[in-house]
Amino acid sequence: MASKDSFGAKSTLEVDGKGYEMFRLDAVAGDGLDVASLPYSLKVLLENLLRTEDGENITADDIKALAGWDADADPDKEIQFTPARVIMQDFTGVPCIVDLATMREAMSDLGGDPEKINPLAPAEMVIDHSVIADVFGTPEAFERNVEIEYERNKERYQFLRWGQGAFSDFKVVPPGTGIVHQVNIEHLARVAFTREVDGETQVYPDTLVGTDSHTTMVNGIGVLGWGVGGIEAEAAMLGQPVSMLIPRVVGFKLSGALPEGSTATDLVLTITEMLREHGVVGKFVEFHGEGVSALPLANRATIGNMSPEFGSTAAIFPVDEETIKYLALTGRDEEQLHLVEAYAKEQGLWHDTTVEGYVEPRFSESLELDLADVVPSLAGPKRPQDRISLSDAAQTFDTAVQDYAEDASATTDVTLSDGTSFTLENGAVTIAAITSCTNTSNPSVMIGAALLAKNAVEKGLTRKPWVKTSLAPGSKVVSDYYERAGLTPYLDKLGFNLVGYGCTTCIGNSGPLIPEVSQAVQESDLAVVSVLSGNRNFEGRINPDVKMNYLASPPLVVAYALAGSMKVDLLNDPLGQDEDGNDVFMRDIWPSASDIEEVVASAIDTEMFTDEYASVFAGDERWKSLDTPEGKTFAWDEDSTYVRKPTYFDGMPAEPEPVTDVEGARILLKLGDSVTTDHISPAGAIKKDAPAGRYLAEQGVEQRDFNSYGSRRGNHEVMIRGTFANIRLRNQIAPGTEGGFTRDFTDGGEVTSVFEASEHYIEQGIPLVVLAGKEYGSGSSRDWAAKGTALLGVKVVIAESYERIHRSNLIGMGVLPLQFPAGKTAEDLGLKGEEVLSVSGITALNDGAIPSTVTVKVEPAPGSDESHGETSEFEATVRIDTPGEASYYRNGGILQFVLRNLLAQSA
C-alpha cells in the first residue's frame, strides 16, 4: 500500500456520477521527463510505481527513471512491479497451492501465524490442462473424456476445492469450462481494475502475472501481463512485487489489411518469424499505427498469445474503440465499459491516431508489416518460428523428413478394426487437431474451419481413416455459435467432434493415436505428422509416436485431415473426389472472408457470453459432489500419488545461512542449443519403464492409471523422476542415447537415468552442474523445469544464453545461472562433460554485492587418461540481474525469502 505521493499524482475521476481515486500520469513532469511519448506499456508500469510508491522499495527516483526512459539505453534500472492479480492453470497452479499449503505448515513450525500465508492479490485458476482427447470422432467424446478426467484427477480436484475454501481471494473455474487465456479475455480481465483501499475505490490499469507463458494473450485487450514460473506467481499472490529491469520496447507498426485467403493464424506466424529473427527476448513488443485500428480484437489476442514464441516478455495492443466493442460483446456491463474508456482517455492510454494532439510513442527499435503481404502459412516441423508458406509446404517437408526417417520412402500396410485398409507412409497426418486458445478464441478462423468442413461434406469429402481428428474449443461460447449457425453436424461428419474444453493436443494431451496406426508407426519407425492450430510444436511434445509437428490455422487443420499427408500440395493437388468422380481442390471449398463475416455477424451475440459465464465458478454436478477436505491446513494423505508435501522447507532456519562457493561439482548433463523447458520439465505420458513409471508401479498404480506428468505436478516424487527425461533430449555426455540418460561418474561412468545418477551424487554430497548452449530454457513458463533441476542436486547451470522465465525460475529455486564468456561455447573451452568443476566468487553475494563474473576452475576427470592434465579456468558471467533476484538466491529461493519476510511480520 502506497504511503508516499511525491508527485501529487493522487486525483479523482468521476464516471457516471461515481468517484474513483486515481494516480495521474501527467503529474510526473519536469526536465527530461516526457510521459506523453512513453510507450503504452511503460505508461502502465509508471502508474504502477506512482500508486505503490513507499519510499523504500519504490522511490521517487524509480518513478523519474521510468518517466525519463531512454529508449536507446540497455536495461540497467530495476523496478518493482506489483500486478493487480494472478491467474493460473491447473498444471502449474496445483503445485502453487501445494506450496502455499506447505508454507502454512512451515510458518506454524517456525512459530508464526499460518494464516499469514494467504493470497493478498486476487488469484484465479482455470482447470483446463487435464482433459485428454482419449475418445474422439463420436458424439460421446466430450462426456466420456470428462468422465475419464474426473476419474484420473479426483485427488487433485479435491485438493483444489479445499484451497478455494481455505484461502481467501482464490477462485477456481472448474473443469469443462474453457481454456484459461480465453476465459481470461472473455470474462476475467477487467482492463480497468478497481479495488477498495483505505475506504476509497481506486481505479488503475488491470495487470497480472500468470503461471502459463501464454498469459500474454490478454495483452490483446490492453492488459499488461506475462507468464512467470509458479514460484514467482506464489510470491506475487503473497504480496511480493515482481523485480524487473525497465525493458527495451520494440514498436511494431501495422498498416494495410489482410488479403483474401489469409487468416489471423497466418499473420501471427509471420510476426513470430519476424520478431524471432529480429531478437526480442526480454523486451516488450508494442503494436501501433493505423493498421491497429483495423485489426479485430480477436486477431490482436491471437498475436499477444504467441509472445513466448517470438521470445518477448509481452506483446501488447493499446486500448481503443475496438477494445470497448469487444468488452461489450463479451458481456461486460455498461458501468465497466464507461470506466475503461474514461480512465484510458484521462491517462493518455487511449489509442487513436486520428485525433488532434496524438503523440507518436518513442520506441527502442522499430519494425513494420503491411498486412497485405501476409500469405497462408504453417510453422514446423519443430519450432513455432519456422514459418513455411503453404505454397512451399509439401516441398520443404520432403527435405525435412530426411532428418526424421531412416528410409524416407518407407511404407507399411494397415488394417483397422472395422476392416478399412490403407498404406501408411512418412508424412501421413495422424493427428489433425483444432486446439489451443491461440486460435479457438478467434471466431473468424473457427467459423472458417466449420464452413470449410460444411463445403467439404457437401462435396462428398471425408477425412482419411488414419487421421485422429479433434475439436477442443477454448470456451463454451464457440459451441454455442457453431450450433446457432448450424455448422456442428458438418464438423462431426468429418470426425471433428467436441472432445473437451481445454488445451488438449497443444500441450501434449492428444491421447493415443488410432491403435493400429500407432503400432504401424512404431514397428516401421515412420515419421508421421500432426497438424494443430496450437502455439507449440516442440519435439516430443504432441505425441510420442509423432516426430514432426506443424502449426496451422483451424481451416488448414481441416484441410490436412482431408488430404491426410504433408506431401499433398494443398494449393495444387486435389483433396479428393466428389460423387461424380471430379477432383475437389481446397480452393473449391475455402470460404470467402465475406462468407465468414456473415456467419460471425449472425451467429454471435452478447447473450452467449453472459449466459455461459453467469455461474462460471459453480461447476457441474461432478464438481459440486466432490468430497472436500476442510481446515486451514491441509491433511496430507501419505498414500496419495497426486498431492504430496514437498521438501523445500524441511529444516529451514529462520535466518538464511551464508552463500558458499561450489567445490568439486560433476556435470550431470551437457546439452546443445534451443533446449526448451519441454525438454527439461516432465510433460506428457509417463512410460512404464521410466523412473517415474517404476515409482508409480511401486506405489501400486496400474499403468493405465499413470495419467500424465502434468496431472501429477503436485507430487514431487514423480516430477523429479521425470526431469530431463524428454524422449527427444540428447545429453552429449551419453552419446548414442536419446531421452533422460547420463553417465554416472560415481559408478565408473556407466550410462543410467538422470534421476538414478543424481541420487548417487546426492548420497555422496557431490554438487551438480548442467552445461547448455543458446536459448536455454525457451518455451513454456514451467516452474518444474527449475524445481526438478534443484531437487536433482544441480547447483549451477552454465549456458551460452537463457530465455527470461527459466533463468528467473532457476534463481527462484536457489540454482545459480551463469553464462559462458561472450562468443565462447563449452566446446571452445574444452569441456567434454567428464570434468570436475568448482565455482568461486559467489560468496560476494553475502556482502550485498552481485559479482559480474565468477571463476570456474576446470579439473580433468579423475581416473581418466587426461587426469594428469592441466587445470584450466574461465570467467563466467553471473546472470543474477537484479538486487531482488540476489535476495532470493541468498535465501535459497524465492519462497524461502517470502516465508522469512512474513515470519518477521508476524513476530
From TrEMBL:
What GO MF terms are annotated?
Answer: 4 iron, 4 sulfur cluster binding; aconitate hydratase activity; metal ion binding; RNA binding
Gene3D superfamilies registered for this protein in UniProt: 6.10.190.10, Aconitase, domain 3, Aconitase, domain 4
Q: Which cofactor does it need?
A: [4Fe-4S] cluster
Pathway recorded for this protein: Carbohydrate metabolism; tricarboxylic acid cycle; isocitrate from oxaloacetate: step 2/2
Relate the protein's function as given in its record: Catalyzes the isomerization of citrate to isocitrate via cis-aconitate.
Identify the SUPFAM superfamilies for this entry: Aconitase iron-sulfur domain (SSF53732), LeuD/IlvD-like (SSF52016)
Name of one Pfam family that matches: Aconitase_C
Please report the stretch or stretches of sequence annotated as the Aconitase A/isopropylmalate dehydratase small subunit swivel domain: 694-822
Reaction(s) catalysed by this chain's protein? citrate = D-threo-isocitrate
> What biological processes does GO assign it?
propionate metabolic process, methylcitrate cycle; tricarboxylic acid cycle
UniProt keywords, alphabetically: 4Fe-4S, Iron, Iron-sulfur, Lyase, Metal-binding, RNA-binding, Tricarboxylic acid cycle
Q: Which residues form the Aconitase/3-isopropylmalate dehydratase large subunit alpha/beta/alpha domain?
A: 69-564
InterPro entries found in the cross-reference section: AcnA_IRP_Swivel (IPR044137), Acnase/IPM_dHydase_lsu_aba_1/3 (IPR015931), Acoase/IPM_deHydtase_lsu_aba (IPR001030), Aconitase/3IPM_dehydase_swvl (IPR015928), Aconitase/IRP2 (IPR006249), Aconitase_4Fe-4S_BS (IPR018136), Aconitase_4Fe-4S_dom (IPR036008), AconitaseA/IPMdHydase_ssu_swvl (IPR000573)
Family that this chain belongs to? Belongs to the aconitase/IPM isomerase family.
Q: Which PROSITE patterns match?
A: ACONITASE_1, ACONITASE_2
For this entry, the protein name equals: Aconitate hydratase
According to its UniProt entry, this protein's organism is Marmoricola endophyticus
Enzyme Commission number(s) of this protein:
4.2.1.3
